[in-house]
Amino acid sequence: MKIRGALALQKRQVLIFVVLLGLSRAGNINWIFLGNLARDLGLKVDELSSREARVVSDDNKKYLHLDLLNGDLLLNEKLDQEELCGSTEPCVLHFQVVLENALQFFQVELHVKDLNDHSPTFLDNEILIKISEGTAIGTTFLLESAQDLDVGSNSLQNYTISPNSHFYIKIPDSGDRKIYPELVLDRALDYEVEAEVRLTLTALDGGSPPRSGTTLVLIKVLDINDNALEFPQSLYEVQVPEDRPLGSWIVTISAKDLDARNDRKISYTFFHASEDICKTFEINPMFGEVNLRSPLDFEAIQSYTINIQSTDGGGSFRKMHPSS
């Protein structure tokens, strides 16, 4: 703890830095020792009682306990950085130590440091991709990204794919600091030689040691499908008033497949969609219509960027990025 000197009735600043797993516990196993407040404030222990010292939090939650018998400041439970602050850094909880007689205040900041206590996880245990044997080398395929509740250096940092002779992983610069894996075809597929390829996709975080999560990538090799899907435009920009009624149409996405036999099998889905996007919009998988699912709030979110993937009956696809 660090303390800056001040006159009575003025505020002092007390900074407490917490590394949750590195804290020692006090005699009572339910308490986590932070420091001796009496010593750090330059007070005698009996002054805490005589001056009716107490700890007050901004949200009235009692995370801290002041032991008036010895002056120890204690934490009554382990804190979860993700639960308290989400992805916000630094994660700071604000408290006050109040001395009633004579009245004096001390500001306390409790800095909660993230621990690498979450492993990356995939929503699905298996990712199915259908790829034509005629697909050109260098073609990329978007893969579902993993989720990691940790933040900063403990968050998701990299992806790897199990050794194989056809594919490698590329992580493009997304511009939003998020890590999206792409599967790149490095050697041509041959349906007659190998109709199915199984790979293990591994997501790694930046902890020490790193945590990881895996999912199966199942690639179905399809007989020749000469034409990939194409969109008439790669970007749709739509302005929507926040009072648009629920169920309202937003935009229609339409892809074209020159392989006539696959034209009626084109399907549309959201890709890399956040929880906010899934709650707010829905897409008709057959016709590509994006509709409003829940109310818009301009003050909360001013814009959405939605990735939409179209897939044809032969398994080839192209992605586009409409925004609303």
Q: Explain this structure to me?
A:
The protein is mainly β and 324 residues long. The protein folds into 3 domains: 111 residues, Sandwich (Immunoglobulin-like); 109 residues, Sandwich (Immunoglobulin-like); 98 residues, Cadherins (Immunoglobulin-like, Sandwich). Helix content is 7%, strand content 35%. The protein is built from 4 helices and 21 strands. A 5-stranded mixed sheet has the order 1-2-8-7-4. The chain is elongated, with a radius of gyration of 28 Å. The N terminus and C terminus are likely disordered. Pfam families: Cadherin, Cadherin_2. It is a single-pass membrane protein. It comes from Saguinus oedipus (Cotton-top tamarin).
Summary of the model, kept short:
Keywords: Calcium, Cell adhesion, Glycoprotein, Membrane, Transmembrane, Transmembrane helix. This protein has 324 residues and is mainly beta.
Architecture blueprint of SSEs:
Elements lengths: L1 E2 L7 E8 L13 E5 H5 L3 H6 L3 E4 L6 E3 L5 E4 L5 H5 L5 E9 L4 E9 L13 E7 L7 E3 L13 E6 L5 E4 L11 E4 L10 E10 L6 E11 L26 E4 L14 E5 L3 H6 E3 L5 E4 L14 E5 L5 E4 L4
Parallel strand pairs: 2-8, 9-15
Antiparallel strand pairs: 1-2, 3-6, 4-7, 5-6, 7-8, 10-13, 11-14, 12-13, 14-15, 16-19, 17-20, 18-19, 20-21
User: How big a fraction of the residues is strand?
Assistant: 35-45%
Q: Which residue ranges are poorly predicted, with pLDDT under 50 across at least 5 consecutive positions?
A: 1-27, 315-324
Number of helical segments with 4 or more residues: 4
- Helical fraction: under 10%
Overall SS class:
mainly beta
One letter per element, helices H and strands E, the order comes to EEEHHEEEHEEEEEEEEEEEHEEEE
Determine and state the CATH class of the largest domain.
Answer: Mainly Beta
- Kindly, what is the distance between the CA atoms of the first and last residues, rounded to a whole number of angstroms? 48 Å
Widest sheet, order of strands? 1-2-8-7-4
Subcellular location: Membrane
Keywords: Calcium, Cell adhesion, Glycoprotein, Membrane, Transmembrane, Transmembrane helix
Protein name: Protocadherin beta-14
Membrane topology: Single-pass membrane protein
